[in-house]
TrEMBL record:
Residue intervals passing through the bilayer: 36-57, 63-85, 97-115, 121-141, 148-174, 186-204, 211-230, 250-268, 335-357, 363-384, 396-415, 421-444
GO cellular component: plasma membrane
Residue ranges, compositional bias (Low complexity): 455-468
Keywords of this entry: Cell membrane, Membrane, Transmembrane, Transmembrane helix, Transport
Species of provenance: Streptomyces qinglanensis
Family: Belongs to the nucleobase:cation symporter-2 (NCS2) (TC 2.A.40) family.
Bilayer disposition of the protein: Multi-pass membrane protein
Coarse class of the protein's main subcellular location: membrane
Full protein name: Uracil-xanthine permease
Cell location: Cell membrane
Pfam families tied to this protein: Xan_ur_permease (PF00860)
Amino acid sequence: MSLRNALHPGPDPVAAGADGPPKHPVDDPRPIHRMLLFGIQHVLVMAATPISSVFLVSSTLHLTPALTANLLSAAFVLSGLGSLLQSLGPWGIGARLPFVMLPGGAPLILFLSIAEQHGLRTATGAVLITAVFYFVVLPVFSRLLRFFPTLVIGTMIVIVGVNLVKVGALLVTGRPGSSDFGEPRALLLGLATVGCTAAAYGLLRGTLRQLSVLLGLLAGTGLAALLGRVEPAATGGGALLHAPELMPFGTPQFSLLASLPLLVYSLASMAEATGQTVINSEAVGKEPDARRDAPRTIRGDAVVSLAGGFFGLPLMVTSGENIGIVRITGVRSRFVTVAAGLVLITIGFLAPVARIVNAIPEPVVGGTALVVFGVITVLGVHMLGRSGLDDHTNTFIVAVALALGLLPILVPGVYDHLPPNLRILLESGVAVGAFSAALLHALFHRVPWRTRPAAEAAETAEMPETPESGATTVAGDRSPTR
């Protein structure tokens, strides 16, 4: 089997309705037991994010164990509800794609910064203000989506993928400068997990092959237990049930000035959500329509963030972490992430399950993440390959955008001496790369001094391939549309 065929398994069978047109695989519900297995696989890969986010909040702000447990429960429940919303897409809220939602990343750091400067009640108020701001700005942002063609989205996804690979690598190696950085047993666990995942994918077939990510993670955890890296105390004791508490820090306080960093970030977040919506559409073999689907994704982010703010959480964002799993397994049904959402909600209310998930060592989770996030990077490269890079102008645009976007990712702290508000903008490599690519594309392809034939040729090269043009939407996927 060629590498191309291994990375891009054949299309799922399309279920035909008795009286209607065939269902696309993304809308095809699978047997419940398979949905549950695949959903658990998604959850185990991404569970480290809400856990680490809550523990970072707890350690930074010196929260009590009771408050920490409350936030952890809320993080799982809201992540589950957000995954349901994005996957089912009721009332135009949610993309109807296999997405999960998580706290963490840049919004978490901004939340902590506001909390340290102005208090936790003001930080939760800033989250609520920003969630409402999404709805206010969305109509204007939707009109600007024409400035985000495939070239820009592909550049953004490559930066997202590289950033996520770095996050996964740090789970394996630890932070540079820390006492356990590069600890040999941690490296062994991470690399062994990658190896077990690759072996499962290469040697198994059918459903077991589609569960290769989960099997690799379980094998890595088993090895960690043999090496004494799983603590039994972490999986036992404590209460059976735990429900999140509303407004755990008290009544939110509202300050537009204090909320400014999050408000600025929300613009970058909408651009990132657009890129993730397009790449998720391509991963499931559905023709991307950013103007239709990206606003639905952003509305979902806004609704869940608004709810999460009342439970003391930072902004909730649609995660690109599970897109790699979709591509590896070839299981494109959005009902898989519906199952994942239900599992996350269950974990939020069942305290022992949360403790068991938390017991999986970070190097094992990091090894799994390296594989999954690497696939996301490949998807971005694939998009760039369809963006007319034989045109030297497009090559220059991508080169400059990647350089600017990857700078703060590869050299952390490069902007530490700049004013705080400017630093917030520049430290988001995804936002810098996206806006740089969009600006350069507009300057080189949409300005009056460009000749009309050249501009038209550039736009034609960047149009997403559609089945009507005789090309496949996703390499190795010959289904007509999503």
